[in-house]
Amino acid sequence: MNKNEYYRQIPKMDEILEDKEIRLLCEEYGRGLVLEIARAKLDELRAFISDHEVWQIQQELDFLYSRLVDAISQELVFPLRKVYNGTGIILHTNLGRAPLGERQQEAAIGAMQGYSNLEYDLNMGSRGKRWEHYVKLICKVIGCEGAIAVNNNAAAVMVMLSALTRGKEVIVSRGELIEIGGRFRIPEVMEQSGALLREVGTTNRTRISDYEAAINENTGALLKVHTSNYKIQGFAEDASVEELVELGNTYHLPVLMDLGSGILVNLERYGLPHSPTVQEILSSGADLVCFSGDKLLGGPQAGIIAGKQTYIQRMENHPLMRAVRLDKCTIGALTETFRQYLDLGRAQQNIPVLKMLSKTREQLKAQAVSMAGLLSDMEFPGIIQTECSVSMLGGGTLPCEEIPSYAVTIIPHRESEEEMVEKLRKLDIPLIAYVKNGKVWIDMRTIQETEVFDLAEEMVAGWRK
Ligand SMILES: *Cc1c(COP(=O)(O)O)cnc(C)c1O
Q: Which residue from 414, 345, 418 is spatially nearest to 383, judged by alpha carbons?
């Protein structure tokens, strides 16, 4: 056959659209999109015929329909997808930080399904406030006078400084001028807020006397920032919240703290070192503390500011609030998150972040053994073992702390460890695993018990393809 005959074998577009599978895709995604992708594929095929030898062409023609269906499906797959987190990092920013539990999901769905009393007072039959749904609850759980919530903690810092310290100096230690990632840098956020950064002390040592020496008539506040994702070890010193509060009282200056992670529970109960809780910061006398909703709190993306009502009031009516307010789904999930915290036992059961954190190494070992058993029974191609591993909190809480965990490890039969990790990433429901000591590791702390069976099946199916 010469090339012209191959060109003639290319089906007409009408004929392609008559194909059963293609018709189904048209019904699901609309004819316009399918047509566009099919045209591009046919152009590619014509170019292939012109550039290749006759013996290579027949195969391309034979596979035309299946390539077309693959291309259309790939183009139209929903881009934001579930993944299995095998990294052992509980608050993994790239994997969506805190996953939400069933109760929290139900509350979010409930809020968006139909109309709601989002800003409607059912008793009065008139306009209500959207924050009334959660403010009282937050105050009750934390034990504070007032609270507000905004889009995220970066916005919380911004609102706090804009509302209270615009045009005034805010004193911060040089050891706390941090960058969190995603371009959140304390000096830049302060600049945006209109507050003037007054840095004191040094990277590793700042004393309370350094703060005092910097106070003048234009000082607006003392700010302490949790260093979150790094730690200075060795010759280091910082001023405590108590010291700052004493100084603030003397000079009538508010003490603000950006705590980063929303820790409401003493972490020692999980065998971790103590890290100050929101309640402790406030009972030390800080005027305001702000923190993330989707770090250790285990809720939706949000930023919460809690503390003295006189300061909260000034933020409620600030124009920025309108730009960073919460949407109704988040309000649903956040309200439910705090409802769970009314009883710590319940919170540990229903908030996934706390549930993952409270699992013992023994429990995770049992889960690893069961997963390894499933993979071996289904003849997954590799040497499958279970081993002690270390997981991490992530999300800028206890950056250097390793949490004892358990993992399934695999030495692949057919490919390199890196190739296996890549292949796992491309499963229908991707698994994010990692390579260490010549093995592929799947940490059990971030895999739910209910996911073990489906994950094993997914892996086996991926290698059968
Ligand atoms: C994480 C963090 C932030 C940013 O919080 P988001 O909720 O991600 O906006 C700000 N400050 C500190 C100290 C943090 O750890």
A: 414
The predicted-structure confidence for 350-401, as pLDDT tens digits, reads as follows: 999 999 999 999 999 999 999 999 999 999 999 999 999 999 998 777 777 8
Specify whether the CB–CB gap between 278 and 260 falls below 8 A. Answer: no
Query: What pLDDT, on the 0 to 100 scale, is given for residue 223?
Result: 98
Tell me, in angstroms, the distance from the centre of ligand 1 to residue 303's CA.
8
Q: Cβ(180) to ligand 1 under 6 A?
A: yes
Total domain count for the chain?
A: 3
Alpha carbon of 281 to ligand 1 centroid (Å)? 17
Residue 180 Cα to ligand 1 midpoint, Å, equals 7
Provide the pLDDT for residue 55.
81
Ligand 1 pocket residue status of 133, Cβ below 6 Å: no
Instruction: Spell out the residues 6+ positions from residue 401 whose beta carbon is closer than 8 angstroms to its own.
Output: 272, 273, 392, 393
Q: Select from 92, 94, 180 the residue to mutate for testing ligand 1; criterion: most ligand atoms less than 8 Å from CB.
A: 180
d(CA 61, CA 7): 10
The parent domain of residue 19 ranges over 3-76
User: For residues 93 and 395, is the Cβ–Cβ distance under 8 A?
Assistant: yes
CA neighbor of 179 nearest in space, from 214, 228, 247: 228
| Whether residue 226 has its Cβ less than 6 Å from ligand 1 | yes
**132 plus 277 within the same structural domain:** yes
What is the pTM assigned to this prediction? 0.91
* pLDDT at 193 (0 to 100): 94
* Domain end (from 329, 350, 371): 350
Domain shared by 156 and 191, yes or no = yes
Residue 442 has which token pair? 């799947």
pLDDT of residue 142: 97
Phi, psi values for residue 128, rounded to 5°: -120, -175
Tell me, yes or no, whether 239 and 345 share the same domain: yes
Q: According to the model, what pLDDT value does residue 452 have? A: 97
Residues of the chain with pLDDT under 50: none
Q: Which long-range contacts (CB under 8 A, 24 or more apart) does 113-119 make?
A: 116/328, 118/328, 118/331
Question: Does residue 107 share a domain with residue 61?
Answer: no
